[in-house]
Design a protein that fits this description.
The complex is a heterodimer of chains A (about 55) and B (about 350).
Chain A: E1 6-10, E2 16-20, H1 23-31, E3 35-37, H2 48-53
Antiparallel strand pairs in A: 1-2, 1-3
Chain B: E1 8-12, E2 28-31, E3 43-47, E4 62-67, E5 72-77, H1 80-91, E6 92-97, E7 103-109, E8 124-130, E9 138-154, E10 163-176, E11 197-202, E12 205-206, E13 216-224, E14 237-238, E15 241-242, E16 253-261, H2 268-273, E17 278-287, E18 290-309, E19 312-321, E20 330-336
Antiparallel strand pairs in B: 1-2, 1-8, 3-4, 5-10, 6-7, 7-20, 8-9, 9-10, 9-13, 11-12, 11-17, 13-16, 14-15, 16-19, 17-18, 18-19, 18-20
Classes of the chains: A alpha+beta (about 55), B mainly beta (about 350).
Chain lengths: ~55, ~350
């Protein structure tokens, strides 16, 4: 089965969701006002020194 | 003096960040155009002939008015790159999938309620040059251009002309001359022709296979944004002439007509009488990296007229495209090697 690429979409209310990048999935979302947004930055690991200080 | 064949054109595949900010040079490609006319600039002067108090009826002075920029046609054979560009800039709501070539663009008409720029579509920059350099005849970049509408024509003829796409563009009047831009080599496009149609089903009638196979003659689809004039207080100046500062869509129209041969049991009349509504899909597939699908979400028939096309009895069908509350009016899907279109 082909691996479908995913994209991040944001609703008019601000909700961000990762969805399959197929026309069938994207079309109703776009009609409902969702827009493509960049992927949210991955959370960075807390520095070890900061953890130890706690 | 220069031959018009020396004209070279380029325009940005990336969108401008604002109507008055030219696109990045790195996002400008160079393409050919079947329209042989350059994009004219028309500054308009006015005079004082209507003013009483001069002692006579004749004008005595000129005043700068505005840039009345005519619309400009880009006419090309339909390719995956140009389809993606025209449809993205004319419809406005674009999602691109893919981190490397090929990219797939899903495009639907933007709605004012949810479009980040309200009733305005993405803007692009346009470059035209004849002998650019120190002694150029023409070298300018027009800033704040928008796609007003387009026409897609699919015909039963051989070659690239069997799938044509033309678009009509407008611009604000803002420009920079000389542009000082060195256009890149012309982009190699991946063009379609009518032989590459791999799916063609309209309102439940499959024109590629089954009883209606081989019966399709031609299809014309068009889009019109009906832009409102963009002059307003603060819209800006170029050379002391007013320029437009926005292009907002008006009542947009999406028209589709097609011609099929008449045969025993033709289903088009029955579909019109029964007011049957269904999806319409036309797909071009060149290869794994170049494809185009126009999916009309709900289409009925407005007119089915018996006619004659090159001596063959035909039906000319005018569709009426209905807005589906879930899937909208139309969804365009284009797979192309070109990334960054309208981004």
């Amino acid at each position: 089965m082909q691996n479908v690429e995913k994209v991040h979409m944001q609703s008019p209310e601000g909700e961000i969701r990762e969805v399959e990048g197929t026309t069938a999935t994207l079309s109703p979302l776009m009609v409902a006002g969702w827009n493509q947004v960049p992927a949210p930055a991955a959370p960075t690991a807390e520095p070890t020194e900061a953890k130890e200080a706690k | 003096m220069a031959n018009i064949n020396e004209l070279i054109e380029g325009w940005s595949y990336g969108k401008q960040t604002a109507i008055g900010t030219a696109a990045l040079v790195a996002k400008i490609w160079r393409l050919t155009n079947l329209n042989t006319k350059p994009w004219a600039k028309v500054p308009v002067n006015e005079d004082d002939r209507a003013e009483v108090g001069k002692g006579h009826e004749f004008p005595t002075a000129l005043f700068k008015s505005h840039y009345n920029m005519p619309s400009f046609e880009i006419s090309k054979y339909a390719s995956s790159e140009f389809l993606a560009w025209v449809l993205a800039f004319s419809l406005g709501n674009v999602t691109v999938v893919g981190s490397a070539s090929p990219y797939t663009y899903t495009i639907v008409p933007a709605l004012g309620a949810t479009n980040a720029t309200g009733l305005e579509l993405p803007y692009f920059s346009y470059v035209q040059q004849i002998r650019p350099g120190g002694s150029s005849l023409l070298d300018e970049i027009l800033v704040g251009c928008a796609v007003k509408g387009w026409k897609l024509a699919i015909k039963n003829s051989p070659g690239r002309a069997s799938a044509m796409l033309s678009c009509e563009c407008v611009t604000t009047g803002q420009y920079t001359s000389p542009s000082t831009i060195t256009l890149p080599a012309a982009t190699a496009l991946h063009e379609f022709n009518a032989g590459m149609v791999s799916a063609l089903t309209i309102n439940g009638i499959n024109y590629l296979t089954g009883g209606s196979g081989k019966q399709f003659v031609s299809l014309d689809a068009s889009w019109e944004n009906n832009f409102r004039p963009g002059f307003f207080p603060g819209s800006g100046l170029q050379d002391g002439y007013q320029i437009q500062g926005r292009f907002e869509w008006g009542d947009r129209t999406f028209a589709v007509q097609f011609v099929v041969r008449v045969q025993t049991g033709s289903a088009e009349y029955a579909a019109l009488i029964a007011q049957t509504v269904g999806t319409a899909t036309i797909t071009f597939t060149r290869d794994a990296n170049n494809a185009f699908t126009m999916l009309i979400q709900a289409m009925g028939f407005n007119v089915v007229e018996l006619s004659n096309t090159d001596g063959i009895a035909t039906l000319q069908v005018t569709g009426v495209q209905l807005y589906d509350p879930t899937n909208g009016l139309v969804t365009m899907s284009i797979t192309t090697p070109q990334g960054g279109i309208c981004q």
